[in-house]
Structure to design on (199 residues):
């Protein structure tokens, strides 16, 4: 089992990076939150999970131990594989996910990719006592739970467009919270891009 890899980021794609470790290029699939911390040609260290299956081996990488730990917990839940777990971590922060599980917020969990009502119930049942490492005073990160004048449909459309542009939910959520005065999807996207491009 490969516990971590340290090397230079040789390529960055939508859902994976190529990590050059002493001349060997490892294809490592990453969540959006980890991908946003990577910089091309810079050295980095990723905690890795190696998934061995019939047709090959896949590596999943994480910038933090917390993200790695919650990934391990997620794939231990029946019906949730590595790809679904990675999609979840691309849509919500570790703290936000743990908060939703601890507070038994099934409606929050069902908004995550690949999670239906039964999967959400299983997550709560199996993980509510295992996610104690998360802080209890974190801010909710799912943009669909924002309060304000903006309708869910407009938020959802803007959210989808920004994800398609390569931004993660963790980046998008705090920016979209400022969009309560926007009346159209286009206005929200323009505002979000203006804020995101400052960083």
């Amino acid at each position: 089992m490969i516990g971590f890899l340290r090397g230079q980021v040789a390529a960055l794609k939508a859902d994976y990076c190529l990590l050059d470790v002493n001349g060997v290029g490892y294809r490592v699939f990453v969540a959006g939150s980890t991908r946003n911390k990577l910089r091309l040609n810079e050295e980095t260290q990723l905690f890795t999970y190696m998934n061995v299956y019939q047709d090959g081996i896949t590596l999943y990488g994480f910038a933090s131990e917390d993200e790695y730990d919650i990934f391990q917990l997620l794939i231990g839940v029946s019906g949730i594989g590595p790809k679904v777990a990675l999609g979840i971590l691309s849509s919500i922060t570790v703290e936000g996910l743990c908060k939703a599980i601890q507070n038994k917020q099934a409606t929050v969990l069902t908004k995550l990719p690949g999670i239906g009502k039964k999967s959400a119930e299983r997550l709560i049942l199996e993980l509510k006592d295992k996610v104690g490492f998360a802080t209890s005073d974190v801010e909710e990160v799912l943009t669909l739970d924002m309060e304000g004048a903006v309708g869910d449909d407009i938020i959802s459309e803007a959210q989808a467009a920004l994800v398609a542009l390569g931004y993660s939910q963790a980046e998008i959520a705090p920016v979209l919270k400022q969009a309560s005065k926007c009346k159209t999807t286009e206005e929200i996207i323009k505002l979000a891009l203006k804020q995101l491009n400052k960083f």
Notes: The chain has a mean pLDDT of 82. Residues 152-164 form the longest helix (13 residues). The first strand starts at residue 4 and ends at 12. The beta strands are 4-12, 16-21, 24-30, 43-53, 56-62.
